[in-house]
Recover the amino acids of this structure.
């Protein structure tokens, strides 16, 4: 008999759980009331600020398990067409943010800029793109790494209007005309730039054909070229989310829209419109306060309504982001498990380990299900 | 004839405007920036006088007169929303009787409103309302009024020196001849024939610098901003003025206030979560479903109440009325004046009264013209909306509709830019727009400006960190740290 799992939430933790579970032949249903945070982050996986960050994680995996977990992640992303670049063990890649800061990462989509040592860069600014602030970005970058940052600027594309956000730019670049415009303009701007210096561009290089666009530009321009991520909706995250969900649907995962109101210890979920879902296991991938899986009452209690449990008090927690269930094994003796941000005890904002902890907690939950 | 005015809040600018219209050469010195004092931390109510009918008849009459006047001379900065005083069952009948009686005696127009009409206008109010009265309350767009005043004063040749603090005076034979200031150009003395202390809650400290004792009783009040404009009229509770009994619709939000806590120092304290919760429960007496409204932020302002007889613990017994002191008569320091207390609504009147006293003491025969001179509308973002869409540039702040072309005032400070365009003041509180706007200003100052804005936005957000606002805080923190790595800068 196939084992059934109900995953509540379709953020990165929910999608990752579904992928792993499907791989192992489980019957998987995803119930979520909204999009998760995948479309808000660029898609590069934070591991921690330092090479031995895993020692501080609430999820205890050996170093080799971490490496295996990341390799598994690379395989899953590969399966839906997102090449991930993995840092070798003990090495930290750094990616550049839209404001010119450097951020540690462990696994990064191939289209996104990352390097182990800081390098001289050419930063592309694009008129008409709200998130593009190349001059300020370059100043921050120089101040941080004492490396050169040359700014080149492109004018607005033909047909532009003030409604163009990053997604609109990206779909324009997916067209033949858009790519031709971009290649021509950027080529003109780079004519006098020092050869071979990496070029970083705002994350607008297409939604569907990014890999091809990056290869095309690198070939045409004679510079390594990669993107830096922008804010929400993040084109990088949207690319991943869309490919990931499509592939899960193809693999037979059921997606159901609805808000779970109660999850019982016997792994039954009830929605606010009265639907009931019984499964062998429930994974709570509900994302804590940010994801909507926990709420803060006016007197400062942090509560997970789904399982009717108080997770902490505002006064006691230093940061909202540490809040969550104390254990993966949440309620019901191993049949209701908390993964991703629903699990407490870690702070991705402070430690830059959001992606790693999603991966680690899902990995652990899976081993708990498989052992049964 | 040169007058130095200390403080660029409503009072100082009201004084400067009145004097400038009389042909006086005015220099306003402001320690920080226009509006960082109480005038940028008030409730936004253009008083009809209704609130003070029983407790402060003088103030009530002044408020009503100015209310009517400002609609004429500053139509771009006041909104005649109208308001209601509502009496709940059990609220003091005697107070209601005195209140209606005073309204008639003082000539403040009120009109009893049938409960059904009130329910239609404001369905969110408690059904426990026994009687309701309409009053000519309105909304005072404080930030816009300040901007208009600055432009109007400068257009008449007077000057504003920001980031310039008055630190003392120079005198010759008991007469003021100059004001010592510290500013971007260092320490210097501004020559003058008279000086006006309009430093609001700090007025006691300024007077102290002059060797004069002036009792100002600072008392702070907390206000909560709700993210949606859920009501279109002002709502007051019809009882002895107290805490948490007024709702004011202001642009896209509603503001609930306030509290009244005497404190020794004039600086606004950090808002306190427990006090915010108390304000929520007081507000719920009028709006039972208040707990489901999204709170956006909380902020404190400090009242500059003048207290002739010394400090007191119970600040609500102090008069709301204002006082103009001629320190020549009072303390033997000719050419020195203080203007104390009052309300935003009465800023013009305070300027006029001060101007009259000053003119009289200096033997100038120059009548006030501020009551019948229109304060011109300053160029606002409306100019942008008339442009061709493409010329507006990229949309930077989705919440408040701020475009690149709205940033064309390069000399404006961050605060002026914020209050001029309203960027980072909407539902996302700068999460998605702060870097876009600040990154287009000075590249060199960018990191510092970002840190400052985040700090400013967060301390107002955190005090009301519950419900959907807690979720926004989590998003703001994730974006700041994980998308932009501001913590690693
Ligand atoms: C702006 C931003 C940037 C980030 N950047 C990075 C980064 O650069 N690198 C990195 O490694 N990590 C990053 N993160 C990841 C982050 O720190 C967390 O690890 C991640 O958001 C957790 O995802 P999750 O799947 O646990 O929850 P979420 O993505 O929040 O998903 C929660 C899901 O649960 C659903 N849900 C909640 N309650 C219910 C209910 N009762 N019924 C039905 N459905 C429900 C929601 O609708 C949603 O689908 C970023 C996050 C954000 C928000
Ligand atoms: C909580 C609260 C709610 C209120 N609500 C309303 C309302 O709804 N309607 C209404 O009409 N009124 C309201 N008021 C009253 C009104 O806001 C104030 O009376 C008015 O803003 C006072 O303005 P001001 O110019 O005197 O003081 P401020 O605005 O504080 O201006 C004083 C200025 O002087 C500057 N300064 C201080 N020391 C020096 C120095 N040494 N050198 C140079 N500059 C200096 C300060 O930086 C400051 O900018 C409210 C007040 C409070 C506290
Ligand atoms: C009528 C009214 C309506 C409002 N509506 C909204 C709204 O719709 N949305 C919203 O988000 N907020 C709104 N506000 C609140 C506003 O954003 C602030 O919260 C409020 O003005 C108090 O300031 P603060 O709490 O940020 O205090 P502070 O952090 O102390 O700052 C006060 C101001 O002074 C400046 N400042 C202080 N010290 C310095 C310094 N040393 N150097 C330079 N600058 C300094 C800051 O930049 C800031 O603008 C409203 C306020 C009023 C009075």
């Amino acid at each position: 008999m196939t084992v059934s799992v109900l995953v509540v939430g379709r953020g990165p933790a929910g999608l990752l759980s579904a992928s792993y579970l499907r791989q192992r032949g489980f019957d998987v249903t995803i119930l979520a009331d909204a999009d998760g945070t995948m479309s808000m982050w660029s898609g590069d996986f934070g591991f921690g600020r330092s090479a031995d960050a895993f020692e501080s994680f609430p999820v205890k995996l050996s170093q080799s398990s971490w490496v295996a977990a990341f390799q598994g992640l690379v395989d899953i992303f590969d399966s839906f067409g997102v090449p991930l670049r993995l840092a070798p063990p003990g090495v930290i890649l750094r990616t550049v943010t839209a404001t010119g800061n450097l951020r540690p990462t462990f696994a990064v989509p191939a289209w996104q800029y990352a390097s182990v040592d800081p390098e001289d860069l050419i930063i592309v600014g694009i008129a008409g793109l709200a998130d593009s602030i190349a001059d300020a970005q370059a100043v921050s970058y120089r101040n941080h790494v004492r490396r050169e940052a040359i700014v080149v600027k492109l004018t607005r594309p033909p047909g532009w209007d003030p409604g163009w956000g990053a997604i609109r730019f990206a779909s324009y670049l997916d067209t033949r005309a858009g790519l031709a415009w971009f290649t021509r303009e950027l080529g003109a701007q780079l004519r006098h730039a020092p050869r071979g210096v990496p070029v970083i561009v705002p994350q607008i290089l297409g939604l569907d054909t990014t890999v091809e666009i990056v290869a095309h530009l690198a070939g045409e321009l004679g510079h390594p070229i990669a993107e830096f991520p922008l804010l929400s909706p993040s084109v990088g995250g949207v690319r991943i989310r869309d490919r990931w969900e499509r592939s899960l649907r193809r693999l037979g995962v059921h997606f159901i829209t609805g808000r779970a109101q109660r999850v019982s210890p016997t792994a039954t979920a009830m929605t606010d419109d009265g639907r009931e879902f019984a499964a062998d296991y429930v994974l709570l991938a509900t994302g804590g306060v940010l994801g909507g899986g926990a709420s803060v009452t006016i007197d400062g209690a942090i509560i997970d309504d789904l399982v009717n449990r108080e997770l902490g008090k505002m006064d006691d927690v230093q940061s909202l982001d540490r809040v969550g269930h104390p254990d993966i094994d949440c309620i019901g003796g191993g049949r209701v498990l908390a993964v991703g941000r629903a699990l407490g005890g870690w702070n991705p904002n402070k430690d830059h380990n959001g992606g790693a902890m999603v991966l680690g907690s899902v990995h652990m939950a899976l081993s708990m299900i498989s052992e049964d | 004839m040169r007058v130095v005015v200390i403080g660029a809040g409503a009072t100082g600018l009201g004084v400067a405007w009145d004097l400038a219209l009389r042909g006086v050469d005015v220099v306003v010195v402001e320690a920080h920036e226009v509006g960082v004092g109480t005038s940028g931390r008030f409730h936004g109510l253009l008083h009809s006088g209704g609130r003070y009918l029983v407790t402060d008849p003088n103030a009530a009459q002044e408020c009503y007169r100015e209310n009517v006047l400002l609609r004429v001379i500053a139509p771009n900065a006041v909104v005649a929303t109208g308001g209601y005083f509502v009496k709940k069952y059990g609220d003091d009948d005697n107070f209601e009787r005195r209140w209606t009686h005073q309204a008639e005696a003082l000539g403040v127009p009120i009109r009893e409103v049938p409960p059904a009409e009130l329910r239609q206008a404001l369905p969110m109010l408690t059904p426990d309302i026994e009687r309701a009265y309409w009053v000519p309350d309105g909304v005072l767009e404080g930030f816009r009024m300040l901007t208009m005043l600055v432009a109007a004063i400068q257009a008449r040749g007077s000057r504003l020196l920001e980031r310039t603090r008055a630190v003392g005076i120079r005198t010759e034979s008991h007469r003021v001849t100059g004001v010592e200031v510290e500013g971007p150009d260092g320490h210097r003395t501004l020559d003058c024939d008279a000086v006006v202390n309009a430093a609001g809650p700090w007025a006691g400290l300024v007077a102290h610098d002059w060797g004069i004792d002036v009792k100002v009783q600072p008392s702070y009040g907390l206000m909560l901003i709700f993210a949606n404009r859920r009501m279109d009229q002002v709502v007051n509770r019809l009882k002895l003025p107290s805490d948490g009994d007024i709702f004011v619709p202001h642009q896209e939000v509603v503001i609930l206030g306030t509290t009244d806590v005497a404190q020794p120092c004039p600086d606004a304290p950090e808002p306190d979560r427990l006090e915010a919760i108390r304000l929520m429960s007081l507000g719920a007496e009028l709006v039972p479903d208040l707990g489901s409204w999204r709170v956006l932020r909380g902020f404190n302002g400090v009242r500059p109440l003048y207290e002739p007889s010394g400090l007191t613990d119970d600040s609500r017994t102090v008069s709301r009325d204002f006082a103009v002191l001629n320190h020549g008569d009072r303390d033997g320091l000719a050419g020195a004046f203080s203007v104390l207390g009052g309300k935003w609504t009465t800023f013009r009147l305070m300027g006029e009264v001060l101007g009259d006293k000053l003119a009289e003491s200096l033997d100038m025969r120059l009548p006030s013209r501020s009551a019948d001179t229109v304060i011109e509308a300053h160029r606002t973002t409306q100019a942008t909306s008339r442009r061709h869409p493409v010329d507006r540039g990229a949309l930077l702040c989705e919440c408040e509709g701020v475009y690149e072309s709205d940033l064309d005032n390069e000399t404006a400070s961050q605060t002026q830019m914020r209050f001029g365009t309203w960027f980072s003041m909407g539902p996302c509180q700068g999460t998605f727009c702060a870097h876009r706007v600040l990154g287009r200003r000075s590249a060199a100052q960018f990191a510092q400006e970002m840190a400052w804005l985040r700090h400013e936005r967060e301390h107002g957000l955190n005090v009301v960190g519950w419900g959907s606002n807690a979720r926004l805080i989590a998003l703001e923190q994730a974006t700041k740290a994980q998308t932009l790595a501001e913590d690693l800068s």
User: Anything to note?
Assistant: Residues B 6-12, 29-32, 36-39, 42-45, 47, 165-166, 198-202, 206, 221, 223, 257-258, 301-304, 342-345 surround flavin-adenine dinucleotide (ligand 2) (CB under 6 Å). Chain B touches chain A at residues 273, 277, 280, 291, 389-390, 392-396, 403, 432, 435-436, 438-440, 443-444, 446-447, 450, 465-467, 470-471, 473-475, 477-489 (CB under 8 Å). The CA atoms of residues 322 and 379 of chain B lie 32 Å apart.
